[in-house]
Amino acid sequence: MIMGASHPLRRGQHLPGRHGDAHGDSAGTPWAGRTLTDSPFAGDDGAVASAVAALLDAARATGEPVDVAALVAALPGARLFVPVTAISAGADEATGGDLGADMAIPTLRSPDGRDALPVFTSVTALTAWSAEARPVPVEARRAAVSAVQEGQQLLVLDPGVDGPAGSVVVPRPALWALAKGEVWTPSPRDPEVAAAVARLGDGLGGVVGVTAEAGPGAAAGRELRVVVELAAGAREHAGWARDSVAQRLGQHELLAERVDSVELVVRELPRAVLVVRPNPGGLLRRWCAWGEGTTPGRPHHPTTFHRSEAAARAAAARWCEGDGGHERPPGSPRCRWCGAES
């Protein structure tokens, strides 16, 4: 299991255990004038909803973890089961008599201390987790709304179920999107997140760039990996660069909303990055080129000024060849170090 159940029950949605009388319900609300509608789950056989079942079956067949984004997309309108358990309401102070039982929804606790709502895709999965819990059918969106209202930050789908289709963690941004009826995009695939992360290093000396990539996942508490790329030879600035980016990351409103958990990594580049930029204010030499960092064993490339962009890029390309040659990432026509096209 990824999450651990908290026992005894710490909090939850408490439902009255007594059923009222002929005049009203247990909250004292009169029955008169109220219309009782049929349950939307009448005749439910307790099996996994078909759209969800297809995703879980695919994960079991391949042995790969469930695609959480596809799962969240399949949840709106799907029926889930919430476990409801009985807890003692205590004794009457005056008579000492038993006050019966209240009903509560258990809360799970994540390894990083956040509360999570356990939900199940089937009666079988729920009763295997707890034989004492009563399975209550509920639409997935209503379960998400309830979790948000209770201050829970995660959903855990089928906790206790082994294999790639069990204990699926739905992260906070996905939970909020589900509750609001919105489409959720995982942060490693969100172009607005990538653009915001790229700006975190602006103006930081020694930082060549900041990039976003997929982390180990929400279950590991590191949904997004933010990589701070240091210029070659700037290793002494690693701690300062990490702290500066972390501070900006924590203060960024969009990232706080859309990213559930972050792994922050600092990497020193092995070579100088050769930069070509316009030269503001230059009359004849309107372009410049320079090296960000210093390639080990090679001289530092100072800023040079050129009459044209082509001349500046040619100078950078010559430096790149002397530093070890061009390298092009898979799928890109441009050199990683100088930007020259093949």
Task: Name some characteristics of this structure.
5-stranded mixed beta sheet; 3 domains; SseB family protein; 3-stranded antiparallel beta sheet; alpha+beta; elongated; 26% helix; 23% strand; 342 residues; Trna Endonuclease, Chain: A, domain 1; 9 helices; 14 strands; GMP Synthetase, Chain A, domain 3; SseB_N
Description:
The protein is of the alpha+beta class. The protein folds into three domains: 4-14 and 45-88 and 100-180, Uncharacterised protein PF11572, DUF3234 (Trna Endonuclease, Chain: A, domain 1); 187-268, GMP Synthetase, Chain A, domain 3 (2-Layer Sandwich); 273-323, no CATH class. The protein has helices at 50-62, 68-74, 123-129, 140-149, 172-180, 191-198, 238-251, 253-258, 309-323, and strands spanning 4-5, 79-88, 101-104, 108-109, 115-119, 134-139, 154-157, 168-170, 207-217, 222-230, 262-268, 273-278, 287-292, 304-306. The strands form four sheets. The chain has a five-stranded mixed sheet. A hairpin with an 8-residue loop joins β12 and β13 (287-292). α4 packs across α5. It holds the Pfam family SseB. This is SseB family protein. Residues 53-176 form the SseB protein N-terminal domain. It comes from Quadrisphaera setariae.
